[in-house]
Amino acid sequence: MAVTANGAAAPVYSDAQLIVAARMYYIDEMSQAEIGKTLGVSQAKVSRMLGLARQTGIVQISVAEYRPRSEELEAALVKRFKLRDAIVVRRLESQSIMELRTTIGYFAAPTVSTWVPSGATVAVAGGRTLRALAERMEPSQPTKGITVIQAMGSIDETTGSYDALEIGRRLATRWSGSFLALNTPAILEDAQVCRRLSEVDQVRKTLDRLNAATVAMVGIGNLQNSVFRERNALKTADVNKLTKAGAVGEIVGRFYDEEGRECDTPFKNRVIGVQLDALRRMKSVIGVVAGSDRTAALRAAIRGKILKSLVLDDAAAISLLESPS
C-alpha cells in the first residue's frame, strides 16, 4: 500500500474516479469544491486526484504552438546591419510598455544566457528592459571565472532595481562570479572633479577592468526616453544643449550623434563609465530595448560599431529595418 511522507496510508483512486474528476474540472469547468460535493470527497482530495490524473497521463495538457520570436526579422536585422545576433520578440496585442519589457525578458533570456562564456568579464549597464532580461537570465551550462562589472556610475543617490549596480550584482550571484562596483555618480557636475575621482586608485582600477571587458549588456536611450530623463538627472536645458550638439542617443550616460560618435559637449568629460571606444573593441555588445521610439539611437549605435547584437521587440525591429541606411 502506498504511504505518505509521514507514514500514513495514502488514498488509492481508480482510473475511473480520476477520469471523472478530471472531466468535471477540465471539460465541464466545475470548481474543485463542486466536484468534491458531487463525488463525496473533500476539496483537498479532489486536488490530489487531479494531480494524480496529470502524473499518470490521464490528463495530458497541450498548448497551441506559438512562436514568440520572429526569425524572419532576426535574420533581416543580422543581414542588413551585419550583426552577430538578433533576438526579436513579438509584442502581444494591447501590451503596455512595462508588460512588453517583461515579455522580452522572458523569451530572450535563455538565448542571451548562452552568450556569456566561462571566463568572461561582463560590463553591465542600467536600463528598464535590461533589468527584465537580466532577471530571467541564468547559466545554461556550468561556467566559471565570470566577472561582472558595473558599467556606469549611479544615476543618483537612490539605487533602483534597474540600476547597473543592482542588475550587475544579481547576475554575478546567479553565475557564482565576482562583482566589481563602480562607486561613483554616473555624471559629475564638474569635469575637473570627474577627472580627479577617476584617478582615485579604487576607481581607476575598476575603470581599467571595465574598459577591457569582453562582453557588455547595455540599454539604449534618447534625449526624450532614458533613465536619466526619467530620474531628472537630465534637465530640459541639458536636452537643448545636447540636441544642438547633434545627440540622437545615449548609452551608459554617453551621448552620441547619428554616426555613433560621442558628442563634444561638457557631458563628455563628466561621465564615469565604460568608454564608447572600449565598447567598439569588445567582441560582444548586446543592446537591449523595448519600443520603436529609439530607432535613430539604435541606427547610430550600429553605424558607429558600438552594438554587435540586439534584443528588441518586433515593432522596434521593423522601424529599424525601414529606416534609411
From TrEMBL:
Protein's UniProt keywords contain Metal-binding: no
Span of domain Sugar-binding: 71-322
UniProt keywords, alphabetically: DNA-binding, Transcription, Transcription regulation
Gene Ontology terms, MF aspect: carbohydrate binding; DNA binding
Glycoprotein found in the keyword field: no
Superkingdom, natural source: Bacteria
Pfam family, one: Sugar-bind
Cross-referenced InterPro entries: NagB/RpiA_transferase-like, RNA_pol_sigma_r3/r4-like, SorC_transcr_regulators, Sugar-bd_dom_put, WH-like_DNA-bd_sf
Family classification: Belongs to the SorC transcriptional regulatory family.
Record's protein name: Deoxyribonucleoside regulator
Organism (species): Botrimarina mediterranea
Taxonomic lineage from the root: Bacteria, Pseudomonadati, Planctomycetota, Planctomycetia, Pirellulales
